[in-house]
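Sample intake sheet
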Amino acid sequence: MKLNTIYQGDCIKVLNDKIDEKSVDLIFADPPYNLSGNGLKWEGNKTGGDWYMINEEWDKMTAPEYMQFTRKWIGACHKVLKDNGSIYISCTYHNLAEIMIILKQFDFKINNVIVWQKTNAMPNMTKRVFTHSTEFVVWAIKGKKWIFNYEELKKINPETQKDGSLKQMRDVWALPLVQGKERLRGKDGRALHSTQKPEEMLKRYCFGPIFRERDDSSGCKKTREKLDWN
């Protein structure tokens, strides 16, 4: 594996063919939610601009196909993670069950299911269910003696105690959907990906299980410096 290199391709093939076994400290995965097919869109939305639900062939699988796909990529992640490595997986209630089952089958220890509370969630279009305003992030670890930078997370926690002192980072994160300059858009002005995740979320992943003040070689340390997380 070449350091500081972006590999573009089938993630399962790249993990199996180009990444050394037990060489990775941290994985963040944002897999397909398997929700394509209904063509929902909302043009002229005043709260966040035009909205188009993702509708791609790679996001259309039967239930058995999705289970098989999930088992393959999580298995590949298990192979390359170090024995105390962490994996964060973004999901919704649609695919949370499959992810949890497969993680357990590979003997991962699930430390937290983080709730992402979207402070600017899209309004309810159908008016037949409660408004969907949350997603989930499963944090699981391989083996024992995982890294968790408790004090670092307290320092970056926007919430504080009543007296202004630092507060423990909880497993409910109130963060907005990506908008403005942070949102990546194509030449047509449309978002390049409908489920782009906030930088603040990435920041917490990096500070939690990996970042150490003296570890200048850490990929997350470089990410922190690049994004001015000082």
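Comment: The helical segments are 11-18, 63-80, 96-105, 150-156, 199-207, 219-226. The beta strands are 24-29, 41-42, 51-52, 81-91, 109-118, 134-141, 172-175.
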